[in-house]
Amino acid sequence: MHCAEISEHELHAFVDRQLANERQRDVTAYLDAHPAAAKRVAVFARQRTNWPRWRRVWPIPAPERRPPNSNKRSAGRSGGRPGSGVIAVAGTILLEVAVAHTGGPPSAL
Question: In whole angstroms, what is the distance from residue 73 CA to residue 106 CA?
Fold first, then answer.
């Protein structure tokens, strides 16, 4: 097994325990040989562990349901306000920084 054959997708699948046993061993060997990749996978694992706690504190609302073609002007767009994607990404980054510095999400109110 060559270490260069481990993909980003496989690193995430490793954390999610979705790899076959043989491939799991290959990724483990890769991580043993590549400390920087092992650190990244540790971050993925921490995110996976913290995700259920974040969902309890900040539940994601169900998407708005609209009949197809109900608003022809927004066809081809997500239907959100302009720039809302940037705000969502910024919020996600802010939450990750908070988790990294505090060790976990705040307690539920």
Answer: 40
Rounded mean pLDDT of 32-41? 92
Whether pTM exceeds 0.70 = no
Structure tokens at 106: 């705040």
Residue among 23, 20, 16 at smallest CA distance from 1:
23
The whole-angstrom separation of Cα 11 and Cα 78 is 30
In tens, the pLDDT along 64-101 reads 766 666 555 554 455 556 666 777 777 777 777 777 76
Q: How far apart are CA 102 and CA 50, in angstroms?
A: 12
For the chain, the distance separating the N- and C-terminal CA atoms, rounded to the nearest angstrom, is 49
Q: Is residue 41 within 8 Å of residue 11, measured between CB atoms? A: yes
CA dihedral 14, 45, 28, 16 (to 10 degrees): -20
